[in-house]
Design goal:
Number of strands: 5
Shape: elongated
Number of domains: 2
Structural class: alpha+beta
Oligomer: single chain
CATH class of the largest domain: Alpha Beta
GO molecular function: DNA binding
Pfam families: HTH_3 (PF01381), MLTR_LBD (PF17765)
Protein name: Helix-turn-helix transcriptional regulator
Strand content: 5-15%
Domain HTH cro/C1-type: 12-66
CATH topology of the largest domain: Beta-Lactamase
Strand order of the largest sheet: 2-1-5-4-3
InterPro entries: Cro/C1-type_HTH, Lambda_DNA-bd_dom_sf, MLTR_LBD
């Protein structure tokens, strides 16, 4: 049997509940009446395309999930999804490469919504030399798996308990916000890895500001903090799901080590 197509009301209701918003909350955010929203969810009223996109924006629905909303309402999809090597995305790819290259000698990577490695700068390679299972470095590389796998970077992360909790917390938040089943599968995989026997210490210099990654390397102990950069106004699904993770030295010793590695 062919599964019944989900109605627009079902889609809207799911996203509203995922955002923990009542009909009144969303109506106030969207500056419409609760009665109007109720009619849209029940199917008694059909919104215009602009109204539907407005509601999706208020609900912070990812571009990937806005197309099904449009289709459910009888509209054509608005947002395209192109491969990163598509000529139309060449300016964006150049921008990513410039950001990655410009961050050297400090490490930086670009990842997609599932934490698959898209690109990395030259400062990343020296940090991966201790990875025991080289299959973890075979594309497609998942950076969360690489970080927490017992044959990956995990044995070399001094504050593994703290860093693991940070990454799993981020992944949980992503899954909660998107409902993406691939993220749920990844989360379950990471949770199945052996947990550190001792709790990591919270570092007073960064407590409440950032969680550092403390990575033991042949060159010495690296203490890194990270930032995430995304495109500000994407209208392409692929581009909207890309993020650049840039790592900065948390102390002068780390900065000196990274600079020396770039000269080798």
């Amino acid at each position: 049997m062919t599964p019944t197509a989900r109605s627009l009301g079902d889609h809207l209701r799911e996203w509203r509940q995922r955002r923990r918003m009542s009909q009144l909350d969303l109506a106030l955010e969207a500056e419409i009446s609760q009665r109007h929203l109720s009619f849209i969810e029940s199917g008694r009223s059909t919104p215009s395309r602009d109204m539907l996109l407005h509601l999706a924006e208020r609900l912070d629905v990812p571009l990937r999930d806005q197309n099904p909303l449009l289709l459910a309402a009888g509209f054509a999809p608005v947002f395209a999804e192109r491969a990163l090597d598509d000529p139309a995305l060449e300016p964006a790819r150049r921008a990513i490469d410039m950001v990655l290259k410009g961050h050297e000698p400090f490490p930086a990577i670009a990842v997609d919504r599932h934490w698959t490695l898209i690109a990395a700068n030259a400062a990343i390679a020296p940090l991966l030399s201790a990875v025991a299972d080289q299959s973890l470095l075979t594309p497609p590389v998942n950076v969360l798996r690489l970080s927490l796998h017992p044959q990956g970077l995990a044995p070399h992360i001094k504050n593994l308990s703290e860093w693991r909790a940070h990454l799993i917390g981020r992944l949980r938040q992503q899954f909660s916000a998107s409902g993406d089943p691939m993220l749920d599968k990844l989360l379950k995989e990471l949770l199945s890895y052996p947990a550190p026997k001792t709790a990591g210490e919270v570092h007073p210099d960064y407590a409440g500001i950032a969680v550092p990654l403390q990575l033991s390397t042949k060159a010495g102990l690296l203490s890194l903090i990270s930032t995430t950069t995304v495109f500000g106004t994407p209208v392409d699904i692929t581009l909207s799901e890309l993020a650049v993770e840039s790592f900065f030295p948390a102390d002068e010793e780390t900065a000196a080590i990274l600079r020396s590695l770039s000269l080798n």
